[in-house]
Amino acid sequence: MSGTLVNAEGWHTLVVTDQSGNTTTVTFTIDKTAPTVLDEYPDVKNDLGNSINLLLGTDEDTTAYFVVLVKGSSSPSENQIIAGTDIDDIHLVLSGNASLNANTEEVININGLDKDSSYEIFVVVIDKAGNKSMVHGFVLNRP
Ligand SMILES: [Ca+2]
């Protein structure tokens, strides 16, 4: 094997030629950039007491993970949010994930809330290369 080390981001095409002159072309991408949660997200609409719509948007195709905690809870780490736990690794019923398309608003329905409680929702998104965004929080205040 010989060749040039490729580590630049973006799409690359690799052409392999054997001793008989047969060639195989492989296309691959290198992505080292963390995805970003767009400015207006996360957001909550349609607060019906026991259920809400969580709105999310990102700048590339990602999987979003979220946990819903009582207001004032400490933020879990990225990996704890992915695992659906709080900062003490306690698994949360109010957690989940969804696929997001780049620059498209995704609406996630969350059920099972106590209508009299205020909540804090923590979100992290991961791109297809495994790069993680920062944790983003949203406080859902109830009267
Ligand atoms: Ca990326």
Describe the structure.
This protein has 143 residues and is mostly beta strands. It has a domain at 43-140: Sandwich (Immunoglobulin-like). The chain contains 1 helix and 9 strands, in the order βββββαββββ. The chain has one helix spanning 78-83, and strands spanning 10-17, 23-30, 43-45, 51-56, 62-70, 95-100, 106-111, 119-127, 136-140. It has a 4-stranded antiparallel sheet. Strand 1 and strand 2 (23-30) form a beta hairpin. 20% of the residues are buried. Calcium ion binds at residues 31, 33, 35, 60, 127, 129, 131.
Strand content: 35-45%
Largest β sheet strand count, sense and barrel closure = 4 strands, antiparallel
How much is the radius of gyration in Å?
20 Å
Q: Structural class of the secondary elements?
A: mainly beta
Uncertain regions spanning at least 5 consecutive residues:
none
**Helical amount among residues, as a percent range?**
under 10%
Distance between the termini: 66 Å
How are the strands ordered across the major sheet?
6-5-8-9
Shape summary: elongated
Short characterization:
The chain has one helix and nine strands. The protein has 143 residues and is mostly beta strands.
Write the layout of secondary structure elements.
Layout: E1 10-17, E2 23-30, E3 43-45, E4 51-56, E5 62-70, H1 78-83, E6 95-100, E7 106-111, E8 119-127, E9 136-140
Antiparallel strand pairs: 1-2, 3-4, 4-7, 5-6, 5-8, 8-9
